[in-house]
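tmp note - PorT family protein
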Amino acid sequence: MKKGLLLAGILAVITGTAATAQRVNYGLKATLMFSNVKGEGINPNYKPGFQGGAFFEFDLSKDKKWGIQPELLFTQTSAKKGNDFAQKYVTYHNTEGRDKIKISAASIPLLVRYSPIQALTFNLGAQYTYMYFIDENLLKANRDAFKKSDIGAVAGAQVNVGNVRFIGRYVLGLTNINNVPAPQYDWKTHQITLGIGVAFK
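out:
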């Protein structure tokens, strides 16, 4: 229910923005992503992954300096069990569990755009992520070690050369995605993305 309301709210914002926008661009992007999950029992090193999808640019001011940028992105990434996992989660630890964790997710960033000059844009906003596939067996009895939903804060910049976008971004996870019943430790996500996008309009 909460996920549905959140998605409905995001769609309402996008629809309302489109109705008042001075100009709309849309396109596709692909980025190399380095991500990690920080918390007790998880390896903190950044792991490489891939992210790609569609972006939309709505100009809200006539001088094209202010706007909003929603996106729909799909991610393939991974994480790794830490060497201390068995000690931290003694009761639930699966002794035959694999170390590597594979994650497939869909993300919806909703960003404010500010372009002091045409060639440079700064982004700031929030991102909702739903991890629809997590390949892991860290816990006994097929328990899920991870929660499915994550909300993050986004900051980044892009260089605009014609219809090409060179993108750099950082996402700080704000949600505890640890689903292990006890003990209660926080797991938070961190993402760094570098990539390129092409606007078709």
